Amino acid sequence: MRSSLALLAACACLLAGCGAQASPPATSAPAPATPVPATPAPASPAPQTTSPSAEATPTAPGASPTGQATAGAGPATADAGLVARLRRGGYVLYVRHTASEATQDDPTPDLADPATQRNLSEEGRAQAREIGQAVRRLRIPIGQVLASPYRRTRETAELAFGQARESRDLINEVYPGADDAALAAALRRLLDARPAAGVNTVLVSHGFNLARATGLSSAEGDTFVFVPGDGDPVARIGVDEWRSLKE
């Protein structure tokens, strides 16, 4: 009886799934991945701004990058090409008187009395003769020769060119009572006046007058070559450069 009951129980156990396999060991769920922070996209570069003071400012011809005017190159040195043009005539030559006596002064000159004036030195007389010799050697045709009434300008003209007609328009502007503005205007008119055909006009005067009328500085004996109406000289011939000019 007991063995029958035991047998029945064993069968029932088999039918009910007794002795089923043990559940597989639980596996831990994978830990959630740590989120990787997103790399921010590179920011677009901000548009570059330039302060007005740092901008490149276009400069006018003849001006420095700072906007300051630069000195001009000045008249060219004379050359053989200039000599050829002078031979055709049509120019105005402004000649500052040649070397004068440094020890003389003439604050109140009497134009009728050379003793009251600063006159040419012996060196100045030699320079004037050399200018004349060069002009003749180079066959430069000279027409009208005008000179300031001062003795040193008339003598320069006579020694260099063999002639001189006085012109009060060329008088030294430091002469007592002289009108600086009027003299400058008169000189500009003379520089603009066209010579007779085939010759050049010569004006023999002072450094002050040239500076006032044109802004040019000069040394004693300098010659400036002007094209009438152009305003600026095309060449400057130093007193010692005449002897080296070639035909």
Report on this model:
The chain contains 6 helices and 7 strands. The chain is an alpha/beta fold and about 250 residues long. It is globular. Mean pLDDT is about 75; it is low at about 1-15 and about 15-75. Keywords: Signal. InterPro entries: His_Pase_superF_clade-1, His_PPase_superfam. This is Histidine phosphatase family protein.
Walk me through the topology.
Elements: H1 2-15, E1 76-77, H2 80-88, E2 92-96, H3 122-137, E3 142-147, H4 151-161, E4 165-166, H5 180-192, E5 200-205, H6 207-214, E6 223-226, E7 233-237
Helix pairs in contact: 3-4, 5-6
Question: Class of one domain, according to the CATH hierarchy?
Answer: Alpha Beta
Strand elements, count: 7
Over the alpha carbons, how many angstroms does the gyration radius reach?
51 Å
- Unreliable stretches (pLDDT < 50, length at least 5) are 1-15, 17-73
**Under the CATH scheme, which architecture of one domain would be assigned?**
3-Layer(aba) Sandwich
Mean pLDDT: 77
Quaternary structure type: single chain
The percent range for helix content is: 25-40%
CATH topology of one domain: Rossmann fold
Into which percentage range does the β-strand content fall?
5-15%
Strand order of the largest sheet: 1-7-6-2-5-3-4
The number of helices is 6
Structural class: alpha/beta
- Taken in chain order, the helices and strands follow as HEHEHEHEHEHEE
Distance between the termini: 162 Å
> Biggest sheet, open or closed, and with what strands and sense?
7 strands, mixed
